[in-house]
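Entries read chain and fold; for instance:
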Amino acid sequence: MRCLFLLILLSLSIARPALADVPVVTVANLEFHSSFWLNLHHVLFGAAWARRPETGARRLTGALPAALPAPVSEDERTAWDAAVTYYEREMADRDLRTGRAMTAIKLALAAEDLASPSIDAPLRAVLERAAPIYKKHYWPEHDRANRQWIERTAQLLRTIEREIVTHHERVYGREWFPSPVRVDVVWVGRAYTTLNPVTHAVVSPVEVAALAEWARVEIVLHEVCHELILPTEKLLADALGKEFGDLWHAVQFYATGTILQNILRARGVEYSPYMYATGLFDRAWGRYRKAVEAAWGPYVREEITRAQAIERTAAALTGK
């Protein structure tokens, strides 16, 4: 009887995701999370943007992956709409990826610390009123989708973990993460990483849903490599100056994507890196493409040194 009782308790705990935030899985010292409060924050942010017309203006979050079903009661609908209205008025124009205030909010929510000074009283009240509605009507499905994505991503990453760590340490010239790096998966949003005071990545499955399955691994690796690229970013800035201030990001995309492509090709798997599969290279960094491919391709293949890759890049872009 006691064993049966314990089994029932276990089944209930699995069927009902708790608010307590613990890693879903850790692989390659990357801690994957599906955080209730961080997902609520992103869903409200995304719902606020969903009210706005699709225009040529820069949008600060991706589209909702699916429509949010209407809350059951009129009171719930009123409270939820009020939370979205607050986010549209107070939060939607603030870039999730930049600024100390938004970073502090993100870190506090990841820590489940709504009492943090970074979350002011109006925002705290909005989140606390919206939380029961989100938990009841939306969170179970969002958490299930997040966890399913995490499990498959970790499964893929685990098969190449050793090669990923070795190649990234060599290419970026830095030790792989000696302590766990947090990676939060959110139902709606865009991939972004903040570095201060700690490296903390956020990814959304919707961004890579239409791409090859291995793109989920690349987007995670790209985000955490925002820390590993820092020494190379400084070397590029020293060599080329402010005119090419975003070059490092193109190099980072290219390096991590090419590392993954090479590892998979050796296993008989063809893969097109994210910046090629999405047209991002030509769309965002067309002026750098020839220089990056000519210099950083040989570097990733261990044919030249990093210093030589930077020299080649500078020569190609400045003619010096």
Notes: The longest strand covers residues 181-185. The two ends are 81 Å apart (CA to CA). The first helix runs from residue 2 to 15.
